[in-house]
Automatic annotation (TrEMBL):
CDD domains: CBS_pair_peptidase_M50, S2P-M50_SpoIVFB_CBS. The active site is at E67. GO terms for cellular component: plasma membrane. One of its GO terms (molecular function) is metallopeptidase activity. Keywords: CBS domain, Cell membrane, Hydrolase, Membrane, Metal-binding, Metalloprotease, Protease, Repeat, Transmembrane, Transmembrane helix, Zinc. Belongs to the peptidase M50B family. This is Zinc metalloprotease. It comes from Oscillatoriales cyanobacterium SpSt-418.
Length: 411
C-alpha cells in the first residue's frame, strides 16, 4: 500500500499517511475529550479535547514505532523497505522481499510487537514515577496520557500476536511451519488459513454485537474481520501463484507467434513483404537451406542506407541465434520473467534442445500461461493489450513474486 500523502521519511524510509487516518484521529480524539471532560472536571473543555488530540497523535506515533521495528530489522537483513503507510486499521510496512530463513522471518515478525511491549513498559514506568495519579477526578493530563497509552501499546502488542495473517502472529506461525516443514509456501498457507478463521470469528462476533447487542463498536470489529479475511486470502493467492510459477516451463508458456523469413531475399523485398502495413510485426527469424540463421530486428533496417536495400540480403542484418537472448524449453518461467525484466526485453526466444527456434515468450504469454494453469478468467483482450504495450497490468506484481518464488524454490 503506497496510497496517501507523503510525509517525509524516517530512517530513510518514505512515510505515507492515508486520508482515512484523519477519520480515526477524530474518532479517537473527540470521544476521549468528551469522556475526560466528565471524568476530570478540573481540566476544563479545552484541555480535555487537547489531551484527546494528543492521545490520538501519540497512538499513531506508537503504531509508527511498531512498524519501524519490523522495518529496521528487515533492513538489517539486507531487505529493502519501500515505505511505511499509516491508515485506518493501523500501519503497514511495504516489504517486497522475504527473509531468507524462517529464523530471520521470525525476527522481522516479532520486532513490531516487541517495540509495542517495550513502549508499554516505558510508559508504565513514566506513569508510575510521575507525581500524582491518573485516577479520576484528580488525575493530571500527563499521567492519564502515559497510563492510557501504556495500556493501548499492550493491546497493540497482544492484538498483533493473534496467530493468523495478516497479523504479526500470523507471520510467526508462517515462520514456525516453515521451520518445521522446510517449506515457506506451507508456512504461508497455514498462517493464511488461521487468518481466515480469525477473520470469520471477528465478522461473526462483530455482527452479533452490532445486530443483537445493538452495540455500534460491533461494526468496527466486523470491518476489521473483513479486512483481515481479504488480506489472508491475498497472501494465500500470492503464494499459490508463486507455487504455480515454479511449475511452469518456458516450453509451456511459449507461442509460435513468429514468422520465418528467407535469409536470401533482399532487404527491399523484406521490407515490402513483412514490414509494410504492420505496426508491430511478430518476432522474425531468418532461415536458409532448412536451417535457422538467427533473429531479424526490423529496427536494424534503419542503419542500412536505402540505396543498399536492393543489394543486401536479410542475412546481412541477421543476429545469429548464439548471440540472441534465449532460454531453453525446460527453463523455469520464473527465470523467463526475471530475464525479460533485467534485460528490458519485449520478448525472448525459446530454443529446442537441437538449437532451433521452438517459440517466443512475451509478457502477454507469461500472463496467459499463469491464467491457464490457475484457471483464472483473463480475457483475450487483456492479453492482446499486454502484448501490444509490452508491460504487465498495473498492480500485477508478478516480477517481485517470481523473484521471491525463485528464492523460496532454492531453499
Ligand atoms: Zn506488526
Amino acid at each position: 500500500m503506497q496510497s496517501g500523502w507523503r510525509m517525509g521519511s524516517v530512517f530513510g524510509i518514505p512515510l505515507f499517511i492515508d486520508p482515512s487516518l484523519f477519520l480515526i484521529l477524530i474518532l479517537i480524539a473527540f470521544p476521549r475529550g468528551i469522556v475526560w471532560q466528565q471524568q476530570y472536571p478540573a481540566w476544563g473543555g479545552s484541555i480535555a479535547y487537547a489531551a484527546g488530540v494528543a492521545m490520538a497523535i501519540l497512538l499513531f506515533t506508537s503504531v509508527l514505532l511498531h512498524e519501524l521495528g519490523h522495518s529496521l530489522v528487515a533492513r538489517s537483513q539486507g531487505i529493502k523497505v519501500n515505505s511505511i503507510t499509516l491508515f485506518i486499521f493501523g500501519g503497514v510496512a511495504s516489504i517486497d522481499q522475504e527473509s531468507k530463513t524462517p529464523g530471520q522471518a521470525f525476527q522481522v515478525a516479532i520486532a513490531g510487537p516487541a517495540v509495542s511491549f517495550f513502549l508499554f513498559c516505558l510508559l508504565s514506568a513514566v506513569a508510575y514515577f510521575l507525581p500524582g495519579t491518573f485516577r479520576p477526578p484528580s488525575g493530571t493530563p500527563a499521567h492519564v496520557l502515559a497510563h492510557d497509552l501504556a495500556v493501548l501499546n499492550l493491546v497493540l502488542a497482544t492484538f498483533n500476536l493473534l496467530p493468523g495473517l495478516p497479523l504479526d502472529g500470523g507471520q510467526i506461525v508462517k515462520a514456525l511451519v516453515w521451520k518445521l516443514t522446510g517449506s515457506r509456501f506451507k508456512g504461508v498457507h497455514w498462517a493464511a488459513r488461521a487468518g481466515k478463521i480469525l477473520g470469520w470469528i471477528a465478522i461473526t462476533f462483530g455482527a452479533i454485537e452490532l445486530f443483537i447487542g445493538r452495540n455500534f463498536s460491533g461494526l468496527w470489529i466486523l470491518l476489521l474481520g473483513l479486512f483481515g479475511l481479504r488480506n489472508a486470502s491475498s497472501y494465500d493467492q500470492a503464494t499459490a501463484l508463486q507455487e504455480t510459477l515454479l511449475t511452469i516451463k518456458a516450453g509451456d508458456a511459449m507461442t509460435r507467434e513468429f514468422r520465418v523469413v528467407d535469409a536470401n531475399i533482399t532487404l527491399r523485398q523484406f521490407a515490402d513483404d513483412y514490414l509494410l502495413n504492420t505496426i508491430a510485426p511478430p518476432a522474425l527469424y531468418a532461415a536458409s537451406n532448412g536451417r535457422y540463421r538467427g533473429l531479424v530486428t526490423p529496427e536494424d533496417l534503419q542503419q542500412i542506407e536505402r540505396s543498399q536495400w536492393e543489394v543486401k540480403t536479410v542475412l546481412d542484418i541477421t543476429h545469429p541465434l548464439t548471440e540472441v537472448s534465449s532460454v531453453e524449453e525446460a527453463t523455469s518461467l520464473v527465470d523467463v520473467i526475471s530475464f525479460l525484466e533485467q534485460n528490458q526485453l519485449r520478448r525472448i526466444t525459446v530454443l529446442s534442445p537441437a538449437g532451433a527456434v521452438s517459440g517466443v515468450i512475451d509478457r502477454g504469454d507469461v500472463v496467459q500461461a499463469i491464467a491457464q494453469k490457475m484457471n483464472l478468467p483473463v480475457s483475450l483482450d487483456i492479453i492482446r493489450r499486454i502484448k501490444e504495450e509490452g508491460a504487465y497490468p498495473p498492480g500485477f506484481n508478478v516480477v517481485a513474486l517470481a523473484q521471491s518464488a525463485k528464492e523460496a524454490g532454492q531453499n
